[in-house]
């Protein structure tokens, strides 16, 4: 504590303008947008996010730098506010941000657990092998994987959907790198577009729904703009797909859904319905409904495990029942790096907002540029920085704008990430999964066509929903 006090005193001596902030009312946050405290926080965030952007190059998990950044930013805030006897304000602000993260965390944890349970039961492997063995041509598979990605992502989220469809493309496209590359671009665009018209399709739409900026049924008004966003690039890209058919998979290696797989799919749909009902009818956080759904899965996992133990006793040599089903294995396989990354982003951006930077950005973007231009810009920024911090910043700003504009920013933040391969979690994941076939430059080649779909979806939204 003596060291902290010494640092604060030294800072005040070196930077006497800090004392000007003490004139602010004790019940309102201090404004440090033109102060060294704010500049230090911005520098910490920029350095950390630069490491996040180059994750694939430096092989440093994105959660690590952003977790450190969030802690350091709030350390700076905590020290500064303690100096002015306003620690209560800082505590209230960080608790507010942490609560927002907690609701998001438990919602996503349940969704990821269900998806991992379905993967373990070979639900998606079965879908993949079914597509491969139906004898579709390369062009038909291009459309099938894109359409499935568009309609699965509203339920399973765009990242999971993209990974599933990419595994299909890699299976059928062996030896055809061009097909794999173009199909991966199509999957990224389709997954992001499909996720934009559902609160479960993307982290950004989930945040908008939980903040009650857009009601559950209102998301579906973005369906037609999302379809156009997917179709325009797909119609052009399909022309580059060569004719021919892939070889079918050996019948002996075709996956079959394990015991209980379809029941878990049904429980997942029930869980989603529960979360929607909790939010829409009872006005409770949807995460509470999701946790109830996790209880359903855990209870069914218990019954499944008991059934497998009985089979093992009856047939000890059976390979299919050697490893009993364990729900905690599915929880352990959740995307923990992603979940911790969200924590870092929400706390770090929340800290910058508490220092006054989000208000400054809001005044410029929504005051000077106007709501439409600002929301279009949000989508472009999402393709460079990632849509999660950008959307969280907008929600923290809470600019005064018509409801149609809240729908617009939901759309642009969701589909804007498709402009570049690094603009969405789906694109980044597929660069790793289809390494060598789907790259930044492969995607960049088709960016003008994707941008055309982006512009068309915005134009159509303003016509339909105004």
Automatic annotation (TrEMBL):
- Kindly name one Pfam family recorded for this protein: CitMHS
- UniProt record, GO biological process: sodium ion transport
Q: Which GO terms describe its cellular component?
A: membrane
- Which compartments is it annotated to reside in? Membrane
Q: Which GO terms describe its molecular function?
A: antiporter activity
Where is the Citrate transporter-like domain positioned along the sequence?
Answer: 50-414
Q: Which UniProt keywords apply?
A: Antiport, Ion transport, Membrane, Signal, Sodium, Sodium transport, Transmembrane, Transmembrane helix, Transport
Q: Where are the transmembrane segments?
A: 37-54, 66-84, 104-120, 141-170, 219-241, 262-281, 287-304, 340-360, 372-395, 407-434, 446-464
Please state the span of the N-terminal signal peptide per the UniProt entry. 1-21
Source superkingdom = Bacteria
The topology of this chain with respect to the membrane is: Multi-pass membrane protein
Protein family: Belongs to the NhaD Na(+)/H(+) (TC 2.A.62) antiporter family.
- Protein name (Swiss-Prot/TrEMBL): Citrate transporter
């Amino acid at each position: 504590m003596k060291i902290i006090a010494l640092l604060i005193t030294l800072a005040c001596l070196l930077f006497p303008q800090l004392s000007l902030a003490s004139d602010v009312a004790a019940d309102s946050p201090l404004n440090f947008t033109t102060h060294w405290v704010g500049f230090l926080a911005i520098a910490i965030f920029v350095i950390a996010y630069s490491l996040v952007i180059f994750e694939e190059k430096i092989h440093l998990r994105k959660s690590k730098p952003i977790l450190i950044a969030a802690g350091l930013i709030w350390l700076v805030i905590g020290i500064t506010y303690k100096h002015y006897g306003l620690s209560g304000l800082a505590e209230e602000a960080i608790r507010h941000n942490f609560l927002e993260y907690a609701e998001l965390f438990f919602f996503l944890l349940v969704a990821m657990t269900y998806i991992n349970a379905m993967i373990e039961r070979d639900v998606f492997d079965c879908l993949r092998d079914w597509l491969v063995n139906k004898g579709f041509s390369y062009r038909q598979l291009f459309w099938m994987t894109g359409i499935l990605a568009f309609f699965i992502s509203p339920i399973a989220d765009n990242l999971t959907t993209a990974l599933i469809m990419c595994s299909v493309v890699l299976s059928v496209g062996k030896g055809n790198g061009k097909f794999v590359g173009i199909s991966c671009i199509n999957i990224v665009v389709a997954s992001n577009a499909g996720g934009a018209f559902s609160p479960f399709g993307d982290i950004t739409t989930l945040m908008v729904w939980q903040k009650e900026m857009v009601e559950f049924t209102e998301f579906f008004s973005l369906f037609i703009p999302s379809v156009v966003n997917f179709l325009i690039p797909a119609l052009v890209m399909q022309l580059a797909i060569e004719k021919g058919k892939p070889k079918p998979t050996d019948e002996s290696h075709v996956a079959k859904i394990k015991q209980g797989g379809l029941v878990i799919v049904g429980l997942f749909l029930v869980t989603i319905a529960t979360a929607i009902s909790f939010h829409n009818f009872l006005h409770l956080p949807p995460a509470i409904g999701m946790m109830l759904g996790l209880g359903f899965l855990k209870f069914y996992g218990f019954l499944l495990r008991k059934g497998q133990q009985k089979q093992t006793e009856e047939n000890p040599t059976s390979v299919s029942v050697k490893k009993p089903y364990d729900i905690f294995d599915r929880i352990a396989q959740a995307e923990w790096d992603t979940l911790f990354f969200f924590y870092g982003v929400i706390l770090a951006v929340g800290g910058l907002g508490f220092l006054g930077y989000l208000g400054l950005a809001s005044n410029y973007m929504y005051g000077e540029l106007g709501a439409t231009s600002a929301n279009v810009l949000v989508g472009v920024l999402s393709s460079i920085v990632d849509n999660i911090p950008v959307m969280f910043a907008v929600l923290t700003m809470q600019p005064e704008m018509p409801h149609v504009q809240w729908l617009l920013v939901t759309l642009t933040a969701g589909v804007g990430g498709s402009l570049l391969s690094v603009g969405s979690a789906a694109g980044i994941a597929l660069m790793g999964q289809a390494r060598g076939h789907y790259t930044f430059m492969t995607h960049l080649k088709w960016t003008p066509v994707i941008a055309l779909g982006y512009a068309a979806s915005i134009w159509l939204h303003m016509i339909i929903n105004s």
